[in-house]
Write a structure and sequence with these properties.
- Two copies of one chain form a homodimer.
- Chain A is built from no helices and ten strands.
- The first copy, chain A, has a seven-stranded antiparallel beta sheet with strand order 7-4-10-2-3-9-8, with no helix packed on it.
- The first copy, chain A, has a single domain, classed as YaeB-like (Elongation Factor Tu (Ef-tu), domain 3, Beta Barrel), CATH 2.40.30.
- Chain A is mainly beta.
- The radius of gyration of chain A is 15 Å and the shape is globular.
- At the A-B interface, strand 1, strand 4, strand 6, strand 7 and strand 10 of A face strand 1, strand 4, strand 6, strand 7 and strand 10 of B.
- Strand 1 of chain A pairs antiparallel with strand 1 of chain B.
């Protein structure tokens, strides 16, 4: 069984190759832009500067069939669902970040780890203690 | 632009109608089962009881075109990206829960909010203070 995702926009970062991308979200990292397509920009109403959001995005260059991979730090083999590898059956990345500001249909955040022009899937308010940042991809 | 999701399994809960589903994740709620399909079960290797995981799942009955909705508590109109409504362009639900145990290719957790047989999309280790539970859908 399958379902179809619609790209609601794209993420603009400074990373042009996978080698340049950092391995983790960095709350103090460089500013990135969540550029929401015009067709979806009405959905941004009510978002506020300083708010913590969960951003979902799509690693379109992922290998979706690699169910057992090696841990980065130890080299030990491990199932993909016990790893945060971008290579997974559904390569949906999840990051909790703070809204730094807005520019038209664009949300400014910091320190995302993805390639420039990565497809954006969803933005939701995060219900989480504001001192905690998670990265789950 | 679009991408295709593959269902990696399904979530078994006690809820047979949308009216029965709770509005929030409850860490002390009833046991639910993340039943991973055989084809994907190798990906579970390395997951451990007590571990905090981020579960992504798919609200297949969502209205995907409703960009401005009313807040549940105030009735105020609000953009979908500022809400945790299940009705959204890409109805991907995200919940952080603790692994309570295993049964073959099944992971036991507590207190998910979804219909029985909801499609399962992904499981990842959550990097989050263990005392914090978030729900982002």
């Amino acid at each position: 069984m399958t379902a179809t995702l619609q790209y609601i926009g794209q993420i603009r970062t400074q990373y042009r190759t996978l080698q340049e991308c950092p391995r983790n979200i960095d709350p103090q990292g460089p500013v990135c832009k969540l550029v929401v397509e015009q067709d979806y920009s009405a959905g941004m109403t009510g978002l506020e500067k300083g708010q913590l959001i969960l951003v979902l995005y799509w690693f379109e260059h992922a290998d979706r069939n690699d169910l057992v991979q090696k841990r980065h730090n130890t080299g030990q083999e491990c199932g993909v669902f016990a790893l945060r590898s971008p290579h997974r059956p559904n390569p949906i990345a999840a990051a909790v970040v703070t809204i730094e500001g807005f520019e038209k249909n664009t949300i400014l955040v910091r320190g995302l780890d993805c390639l420039d022009r990565t497809p954006l899937l969803d933005i939701k308010p995060a219900l989480v203690n504001e001192s905690v940042n998670i990265r789950c991809d």
